[in-house]
Structures are given as C-alpha cells and as structure tokens.
Amino acid sequence: MSKLEEIIKYNESFVGNKDYQEYVTTKIPKKKMAILSCMDTRLTELLPKAMNIKNGDAKIIKDAGATVMHPFGGVMRSILVAVYEFGAEDVFVIGHHGCGMSNLNTKKLVDKMLDRGIKEETLSTLNNAGVNVERWLHGFESVEESIKESVKMIKDHPLLPNDVRVHGLIMSPETGELEIIINGDIKDAN
C-alpha cells in the first residue's frame, strides 16, 4: 500500500467516525499569535504542547530553519496575512538546537540533486541567471544569530505595524524547553 493509499484509507475512517469533531474551531487564532517554526519532525507535536497551544490558538508557519529568507517571500507574506487578516498581535520566531539548517553542507546537497537526476545544465542556467543555488540553499552557522536576523527582518518590515510584538526563542527538540533570545515585549528589543 502506498503512503497516499494508507492516508486515504485512514482518512475515510477518521471522517466516518467523526474524529475531527474535537478539532473544530475557527480560522481566527484565539491567542492572536503567529508562530514561525522549523519544519523539523520533532517539533510537530512537541512545540504546541510546550507552548500550551491547541488547535485554533495560533497560525503556525513552518519552513526549513524557521527563517525569513526574503522580506517579500512566502514566510513574510504569511506573517502579514496572519496580522492583518487574522488579528495576530504577537509573532514568535522559534528555532531549535541541533537544526539541520545549521552548517548545512550545500555542496553535498547539490551533489544529491545531481545523483537524483537534476542536470548540471540546470544548475548552470540558474547560476547564470543570478541564482547561486548553493548560497540560496545555505542555512546558518548559529541558530541564535539566525533567529535574531529573522526577528529583525520581521520587525523592520515596512508593512508590519509597530504594535505587533516580535519574539525570538530557541527550543530544545528533546525537552521542549524554551529559551528567550529576543523579548518583543521590551521596547526596542534586538
């Protein structure tokens, strides 16, 4: 049975048994918060539990490394929509120790692309068009510094209102312990 078939089979039972009822809520986050976190599988359930977040409490945005890579990219767009359309008053950028994006070997990643059938010409075309693939894929050396950079990019965004608090935290993917890097409740926190 393929992964898709397995999911659909389970889903039919989930819907048929009305197991969804315990998750019914609105699209407006009750706690008026947006969370940017890493896509790490260890955080899927741990992060909400460690923060006392339940279904319907927050808008959760996930990407590799919990990073805002571009001020007008998809992550920032999601944060702005969470603020203006869904009433988020706080934004939490939550990285974690042992992140796979920390010191990511992009040369090895590109080699894996080539091994999986991506053509060298494709990489050359992208590089010639101004997209340095290895630089684009690069993560960061320090989780703490990456969080600070993402918080700064969010706080300094020309479309983010001044009354939105932006916080930066690091989580332990083993215990869920949170460490405050930037407290957005403190005026001019960097």
In brief:
The chain is α/β, with parallel strands linked by helices. It has helices spanning 3-16, 43-50, 74-84, 106-115, 120-128, 133-137, 143-155, and strands at 33-38, 58-63, 90-96, 165-171, 178-182.
Overview of this protein structure:
The chain is of the alpha/beta class and 190 residues long. It has a domain at 27-104 and 139-182: Beta-carbonic Anhydrase, Chain A. 37% of the residues lie in helices and 16% in strands. It is built from seven helices and five strands; from the N terminus they run αβαβαβααααββ. Strands 2-1-3-4-5 form a five-stranded mixed sheet, with helices on both faces. β1, α2 (43-50) and β2 (58-63) form a beta-alpha-beta unit. The longest helix is centred in the N-terminal third of the chain and has 14 residues, at 3-16. The radius of gyration is 19 Å and the shape is globular. The mean pLDDT is 95. Pfam families: Pro_CA. Belongs to the beta-class carbonic anhydrase family. Zn(2+) binds at residues 38, 40, 96, 99. Its EC number is 4.2.1.1.
